[in-house]
Specification:
Strand order of the largest sheet: 6-5-14-15-16-13-17-20
CATH topology of one domain: FAD/NAD(P)-binding domain
Distance between the termini: 33 Å
Number of helices: 12
CATH architecture of one domain: 3-Layer(bba) Sandwich
CATH superfamily of one domain: FAD/NAD(P)-binding domain
Largest sheet: 8 strands, mixed
Strand content: 25-35%
Radius of gyration: 21 Å
Structural class: alpha+beta
């Protein structure tokens, strides 16, 4: 085998790990490159929608995903929409209504770092898979026949790696995208989001919450989800907006964090805080997902607000789509014009569905006009109470429609 018969994947987050696993299982030699010294315990994405669960199962991750151990996920078929002003339960949606129609009729709350660990473990001993930590991409060139990556290790030593293709899965600040000169088009929201994790169990309260909750509020909307965490107690994650005029220091202070949780559910004493993080939120899509022998997937190609849990799922859908097309070209079942189709398909999924839906989700939860808010809430209730509309809502919000319509693009 030529030294060029290899694909490089840059960035060992959930999309990169799945990308590498999908390629190795198709007998394509792959090297996964990560600048960190080890997989990081990133507390961002956790929601895995049903079609994504199916993809992970097909990659051999079903046992790890459904494990009863803390390393596994939490099955969460039900989610609530509430009016936070008076805790009115507006609508209950249940993915179980699709039982018999889809393979996995539930959402899996599986933290992204656990998915990464499971995928990396699955590749151990695979001669097609190599993982290189403490390796930073510093330059990228491509010719008609190959890609050339200049990388630097922890000691500052440089090396040139040569292969057939490179895939950027290295996040919003993607070095691959920057070095390939691909524009990331869109905008940044003026407010920031804060994610707060607490071991306090909201199921033990009198509020009637479930494991996935969306709260509409003109002043401070909220998402509240449960994940397993690492300690056996479980972690509840709240995602709150931070107004543009609120200083970072105030939002991240002990008082700021406690205030937001106490406003959600007042209790005696402080909340135990597992973690908290403040971040900017973008709605952006790369101008193209392929340029010669360079590809983008996941946050390197698209970013969106997290309401609805669509970002990581869309990235995994990118990875599975691209792995299939790379295998077809690699084993001469197709020529390389299928890569343009990859870009068309996955950009459509992102622009027409993920971007549109995540923006609509945010605007609906934060709506300030009382009449429009009431109309939105009544519409959610109506959809939840009509079985056909209920199913349509699930198919769209769980990205079944996105996947189907994107895959139909020629």
């Amino acid at each position: 085998m030529s030294s060029l018969d290899r694909v490089f994947v840059v960035g060992a987050g959930p999309v990169g790990a799945v990308m590498a696993l999908a390629l190795s299982r198709r007998n394509i030699p792959v090297t996964l490159i990560e600048s960190e010294k080890e997989p990081i315990e990133d507390q961002r994405a956790a929601t895995v929608h049903p079609p994504t669960v199916e993809m992970l199962a097909e990659l051999g991750l079903e046992e790890e995903a459904f494990s009863d151990e803390p390393s596994g996920g939490l099955q969460s078929p039900i989610f609530h929409y509430r009016n936070r002003i008076d805790n009115e339960l507006v609508a209950v949606f249940d993915v179980n209504v699709l039982k018999g129609e889809v393979a996995y009729p539930f959402v899996l709350q599986w933290e992204q770092y656990k998915l990464v660990r499971a995928a990396l473990k699955k590749m151990e001993g695979d001669p097609n898979a190599e993982v290189r930590f403490s390796t930073r991409l510093t330059d990228l060139k491509q010719t008609e026949d190959e890609v050339q990556l200049t990388v630097t290790n922890a000691a500052g030593e440089s090396e040139i790696l040569r292969g057939r293709y490179v895939i950027g899965t290295d996040g919003f600040r993607s070095s691959v995208r920057r070095l390939a000169d691909i524009e990331l088009e869109g905008f940044t929201w003026p407010e920031r989001f804060i994610k707060i994790g607490t071991t306090f169990d909201y199921l033990d309260t009198d509020r009637g919450y479930c494991t996935r909750n969306y709260f509409s509020d003109p002043d401070e909307w909220l998402n509240l989800f449960q994940v397993k965490g690492n300690g056996g107690k479980g972690i509840w994650r709240g995602i709150f907006p931070v107004p543009a005029d609120e200083p970072d220091e105030s939002a991240m202070s002990v008082e700021g964090v406690q205030r937001r949780l106490q406003n959600l559910y007042p209790k005696s004493g402080d909340y135990d805080i597992a973690y908290h993080a403040l971040y900017q939120v973008h709605q952006r899509v790369a101008a193209t997902y392929n340029k010669g022998r360079v590809f983008l997937a996941g946050d390197s190609a698209h970013v969106n607000n997290p309401i609805g849990g669509m970002g990581m799922n869309g990235g995994i859908h990118d990875a599975v789509n691209l792995a299939e097309k790379l295998a077809d070209v690699w084993f001469k079942r197709a020529d390389d014009n299928v890569f343009d189709r990859y870009s068309r398909q996955r950009r459509k999924a992102q622009i027409d569905f993920v971007q549109a839906q995540s923006i609509a989700n945010k605007k609906s939860l934060e709506e300030k006009d009382p009449a429009i808010r009431r109309k939105n809430l009544d519409n959610l209730r109506r959809m939840s109470e009509d079985i056909n509309l209920h199913k349509q809502f699930i198919y769209r919000s769980s990205l079944f429609d996105s996947l189907r319509m994107a895959n139909e693009v020629e």
